[in-house]
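Lab notebook, bench 4. The sequencing result for the construct came back, and we need a structural model before the next group meeting so we can plan mutations. Quick request posted to the team channel:

Model the 3D structure of this chain.
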Amino acid sequence: MSALGEVLDEYLALRRAVGFKLEHAGHCLPRFVAFLDARGEPRISVASALEWAAQQSSPPRVLTEVRVFARYAQALDPANEVPPVELCPRPHTRPTPYLYSAHEVEALMEGARSLEPELWAATCESVIGLLWTSGMRIGEVLRLDRADLCLESGVVTVWHTKFKKSRHVPLTACTSAALGTYARVRDRHFERPITDAFFVSKTGRRVNYPSIYNEFIGLLERAGIPARPVGRPRLHDFRHSFAVRTLLGWYRSDEDVGALLPRLSTYLGHSEPASTYWYLSAAPELMALAAERLERAEGARS
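Done. Here's the predicted structure in token form:
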């Protein structure tokens, strides 16, 4: 491990010790340090930070993480440079979600089945399937322990999520059966588990985000899902797709969306329904259906 890599480990450990989860920083900063190591650069420079950030799906967000880490590194070694805020200010807008189609998800899962070895193929396919059918966050899926899933009753317990809440997530019968098949494949490879994790890597340990993310990028290319001007599709976009798909189903069935939305908010683990209302503007079809319903309601009143 490089000297800067050791500084990064200390930085992440220190911030986690005082209560920060660092889900994003814990993923992007190791990639940034690996980028510097590959170039033989022992310290952070503004030029390298900007070059690396420009290659990411959300440059302002990752550069913000680099900037905070660089301040810490500079306190230990003044030769480290801190990227100025004005170079790439972070916008206050949410990223435009990519809404996967069922056909695209089938292509991604088919690509996952062709991976090697068999266990890793099963892990990638099952993670994608659970994200698509449950709307869970990728971090929640990777943190699942075996005891958190009751496949007989089809319920997943998600502990201490983004807003320090816990919730139960019901699964469809097909999803429960698929996860049961995955568990048998996993246990056939590792009769004596070395981790409590439900999803395991090639070595039998808990899957980490960088490994599943890097594999996912390759699966996107195999499935013919291109990057967009606003960035490539993300694992988190499965959650957006689930929410929009659910809302579309309610509108098409002429359900009382206003009454049902708080249920979706609770299911997704949002801190407040306002976070869920954002999905109403995430898809043109949803906006059209909402506008159509509003017109009908106004016509009935007139």
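The longest strand covers residues 155-158.
Will bring this to the meeting.
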